[in-house]
Specification:
Blueprint (H helix, E strand, L loop, with lengths): L10 E5 L3 E4 L3 E10 L4 E6 L9 E7 L4 E5 L5 E3 L3 E6 L1 E8 L1
Antiparallel strand pairs: 1-9, 2-8, 3-6, 3-7, 3-9, 4-5, 4-8
Length: 97
Protein backbone atom coordinates (compact mmCIF):
# COMPACT_ATOMS: atom_id res chain seq x y z
CA UNK A 1 0.00 0.00 0.00
CA UNK A 2 1.47 3.40 -0.93
CA UNK A 3 2.21 5.79 1.91
CA UNK A 4 0.16 8.95 2.27
CA UNK A 5 1.51 12.43 2.69
CA UNK A 6 -0.33 14.19 5.48
CA UNK A 7 -0.82 17.96 5.60
CA UNK A 8 -1.06 20.67 2.99
CA UNK A 9 1.27 21.74 0.23
CA UNK A 10 3.23 24.88 0.95
CA UNK A 11 3.91 27.00 -2.12
CA UNK A 12 6.13 30.02 -2.72
CA UNK A 13 5.83 33.32 -4.56
CA UNK A 14 8.57 35.92 -5.10
CA UNK A 15 8.48 39.60 -6.08
CA UNK A 16 11.02 42.38 -6.59
CA UNK A 17 8.43 45.18 -6.85
CA UNK A 18 4.82 45.78 -5.77
CA UNK A 19 2.91 42.67 -6.83
CA UNK A 20 -0.02 40.35 -6.32
CA UNK A 21 1.67 37.30 -4.81
CA UNK A 22 -1.41 35.11 -4.36
CA UNK A 23 -4.71 35.65 -6.18
CA UNK A 24 -6.93 33.40 -4.04
CA UNK A 25 -7.68 32.76 -0.35
CA UNK A 26 -4.63 31.42 1.47
CA UNK A 27 -2.67 31.30 4.69
CA UNK A 28 0.60 33.18 4.80
CA UNK A 29 3.01 30.82 6.59
CA UNK A 30 6.37 32.57 6.36
CA UNK A 31 8.56 34.95 4.43
CA UNK A 32 12.09 35.97 3.54
CA UNK A 33 12.87 39.61 2.78
CA UNK A 34 16.14 40.85 1.27
CA UNK A 35 16.73 44.48 2.20
CA UNK A 36 17.91 47.04 -0.33
CA UNK A 37 20.58 49.72 -0.04
CA UNK A 38 18.49 51.69 2.48
CA UNK A 39 15.99 50.70 5.19
CA UNK A 40 12.75 49.40 3.72
CA UNK A 41 9.48 47.66 4.43
CA UNK A 42 6.86 45.35 3.01
CA UNK A 43 3.15 45.71 3.75
CA UNK A 44 1.04 42.67 2.91
CA UNK A 45 -2.61 43.32 2.09
CA UNK A 46 -5.58 40.96 2.06
CA UNK A 47 -6.26 41.79 -1.58
CA UNK A 48 -5.69 39.88 -4.82
CA UNK A 49 -4.62 42.78 -7.03
CA UNK A 50 -3.92 46.08 -5.21
CA UNK A 51 -2.37 47.72 -2.15
CA UNK A 52 -5.73 48.37 -0.55
CA UNK A 53 -8.06 46.78 1.94
CA UNK A 54 -6.82 45.29 5.17
CA UNK A 55 -3.10 45.27 5.92
CA UNK A 56 -2.46 41.82 7.40
CA UNK A 57 1.27 42.11 8.10
CA UNK A 58 3.98 44.77 7.97
CA UNK A 59 7.67 44.00 8.23
CA UNK A 60 10.53 46.50 8.37
CA UNK A 61 13.99 45.55 7.11
CA UNK A 62 17.31 47.30 7.74
CA UNK A 63 19.52 48.17 4.78
CA UNK A 64 21.52 45.29 3.29
CA UNK A 65 20.10 42.65 5.65
CA UNK A 66 17.78 39.68 5.30
CA UNK A 67 14.79 39.02 7.52
CA UNK A 68 13.09 35.66 7.90
CA UNK A 69 9.73 35.15 9.59
CA UNK A 70 8.12 31.80 10.30
CA UNK A 71 4.47 32.31 11.20
CA UNK A 72 3.29 29.75 13.78
CA UNK A 73 0.22 27.56 13.83
CA UNK A 74 -2.13 28.12 10.88
CA UNK A 75 -0.46 31.31 9.62
CA UNK A 76 -2.16 34.59 8.74
CA UNK A 77 -5.38 34.08 6.77
CA UNK A 78 -5.99 36.22 3.70
CA UNK A 79 -9.53 35.73 2.43
CA UNK A 80 -8.93 37.51 -0.90
CA UNK A 81 -5.27 36.82 -1.68
CA UNK A 82 -2.00 38.55 -0.83
CA UNK A 83 -0.64 41.75 -2.35
CA UNK A 84 2.84 43.04 -1.39
CA UNK A 85 3.52 46.78 -1.25
CA UNK A 86 7.34 46.94 -1.37
CA UNK A 87 9.50 49.93 -0.40
CA UNK A 88 13.32 49.80 -0.74
CA UNK A 89 13.38 45.99 -0.78
CA UNK A 90 15.40 43.89 -3.24
CA UNK A 91 13.21 40.77 -3.03
CA UNK A 92 10.48 39.17 -0.96
CA UNK A 93 9.54 35.49 -0.98
CA UNK A 94 6.42 34.26 0.79
CA UNK A 95 5.42 30.76 1.79
CA UNK A 96 1.68 30.07 1.68
CA UNK A 97 -0.87 27.30 1.59
Amino acid sequence: MPSRIVGVDVKTATATADAALVAHPCRLRGLIVAGGSSDGSVVFYDHASAASGTAILTIAVNANTNETLNIPDQGVYASNGVYADITNIDRVTVFFC
